[in-house]
Amino acid sequence: MNKPTTTARGVYTIPEERRIGGKAHLALVTRRNAAERRFRAYGIAALGLSLLFLVTLFVTIIGNGASAFRQTYVKLDVNFAADVLDPDGKRDPATLGSANYLTLVRNTLRSQLPDTEGRAALREAQGLISSAANYQLREMVLADPLLVGQTRPVWVLASALVDATLKGGIDRNLPESDRKISDRQLGWLDKLAAEGRIERRFNSVLFTAGDSREPEQAGIWGAVMGSFYTMVVTLALSFPIGVAAAIYLEEFAPRNRWTDLIEVNINNLAAVPSIVYGLLGLAVFINWFGLPRSAPLVGGLVLTLMTLPVIIIASRAALTSVPPSIREAALGMGASKMQTVTHHVLPLALPGMLTGAIIGMSRALGETAPLLMIGMVAFIVDVPTGFTSHATVLPVQIYLWADSPERAFVERTSAAILVLLGFMVAMNALAVILRKRFERRW
Amino acid sequence: MNTAIAQQRAIHQEPVMAAHPQDLAFNATEPAPEGHRTVGLVTVDNPKMSARDVNVHYGDKHAIKHVTIDIGTNEVIAFIGPSGCGKSTFLRCLNRMNDTIDGCRVSGEITLDGHDIYARDLDVVQLRARVGMVFQKPNPFPKSIFDNVAYGPRIHGMVSSKSELEDLVQWALEKAGLWNEVKDRLHQPGTGLSGGQQQRLCIARAISVSPEVILMDEPCSALDPIATAKIEELIDELRANFSIVIVTHSMQQAARVSQRTAYFHLGDLIEVGETEQIFTNPVHKLTEGYITGRFG
Lengths: 442, 296
Fold this sequence. Notes:
The complex is a heterodimer.
Chain A: H1 23-65, E1 70-79, H2 82-85, H3 93-98, H4 101-112, H5 119-126, H6 132-143, E2 151-157, H7 160-166, H8 183-194, E3 198-202, H9 204-208, H10 221-252, H11 257-269, H12 274-288, H13 296-320, H14 324-332, H15 337-365, H16 369-373, H17 394-402, H18 408-438
Antiparallel strand pairs in A: 1-2, 1-3
Helix pairs in contact in A: 1-18, 4-6, 10-13, 10-15, 10-17, 12-13, 13-15, 14-15, 15-18, 17-18
Chain B: H1 3-7, E1 39-40, E2 47-58, E3 61-72, E4 76-80, H2 87-93, E5 104-112, E6 115-116, H3 124-130, E7 131-134, H4 145-155, H5 162-175, H6 179-182, H7 195-207, E8 213-217, H8 225-238, E9 243-247, H9 251-257, E10 260-265, E11 268-274, H10 275-280, H11 285-291
């Protein structure tokens, strides 16, 4: 009795060197500290590497795209000759509208530039300015018929060739046969520059025009509007449906085999490659329902399918994070299940749901593959005016431009990427702000 | 009420006294013998609620075994017992909060004023308004103090005007002994109060709908001794208007606030009796082992 408890091998004493402060223990501590330092170094290295990639990405894109926000304009003294525009002298808008403005442009170029005799020379001279100049002059005349018969200095859009040359995109030192711009054109350019007739201005065309085969006339506004209509459809469908599904699954549905199956499927759907949704949309919405091709409506529906699982998962996570004590408190007060959800749970989960929805939206905004399948990859010049007009979206526009051979589309591609990134950053920032602003802690 | 059962009072007062102190060694993991019958007086003359042969199963687990007990009008009854003995589970049967738990089945009969609360036609929403609940952890809504208390009256349509609501909120807060502390900041969030104030806010919220019974699930376990003392005082005052069932881990608390005490052990209701008797002269050896702190 009263013997101290011992192990089978007797009382155990830790050897001197293995006690705290002993030699073996100190060696262990040294190793442990080294391991900790190493681990921290890995973390910093990983962070540094990812920052490096990010910086590289931004430097490249901004480096390529910044120049696209400025566009070259050429000042020409245009003689709005009455004999070209209005031979009858009646100033009839119909006549003025259908007059041959190309002749006006040619005459102007002939009068302003030396050595423009012959068709080849004239065509080269015409290559200096954008084909949009014709329409610009027509608009001016229609807006103010009194211009006819007068000579006015007009800033017209330079061609993409001139723009690229002046921005350094074309090497002037190459032999003439190796570059797109001829010696004669370079001579004219230098003359115009010397006369102060060349200027670079803010590229408003980029933000107001739809797509075009001519880079200097191409803009992202059509794609932005296409993206806008598509996102409206996506948000209007996926947020209410996703939130309702999440609320039902989380708060009302019984836990059984069927709900488990549904849950597994929702999680799997979130991981399905997006192009599959494009195929599904093509088969269901276009071939079966007969909805129009290339329309934001169908694009929005397809992106809804893609975004729904993301929103459902995020919303369920937001609901789960509402502490059960709140539900108990409400139920214990005699609130019905629905009152509990609408009065207490939903308001608390809403910031999280909105965050999820915004993240889902910004993913949908950047989605390209499924939209290729439903024809939103078409070349569309007009800015879409509704949910069923033909449209493309920003990321598809980037894809289209990146595919174009013209030198000037390179910078425009990067500019479009910058705009898209701007939208993404804005949306994600909104998500962060919402979370910070409305998040409650328990 | 089933009078046959009511009359068959489960008086079972054969002395189960232990011969040697060693036999009292209390084993919290060992259930009472099969077919155990509750010792002591389980019924009262003027019951507010009565439970008859209540069983609760969580899936395969038999969490509450054949519990029969009355809850008297205007009395405080304390449920004590080791962790996991089912006292909270049984408490939650009394306002059907167990309905919200998947896989929980309740059988037997529980009546409130003679009406079966598990009857098909009973509206559980109304039941919970009549049998209020205060939880272990203070759980005010993340709303203002006023809105916390006003929530119940609002959803049950108990007030017809704003001034009526204000009067009711003030009454409830006064009743809960919180009015003087919060009257100047009624529109500040209830979550900004201290733990003890939050718990009293929860009590005010519970009594705002004038329930008949208040269930308290370890209401002081998250509070410091000063806040605990205030709540205990409050419970004593509330007894005048309500029947109160309190689950507690503190035997001193049970002794201080309750008139009757019930001892639960692994799903069995071992013994019920006057609080004084339970603490000074327990009949069953398991009760005695628990109360004297002899854990095996």
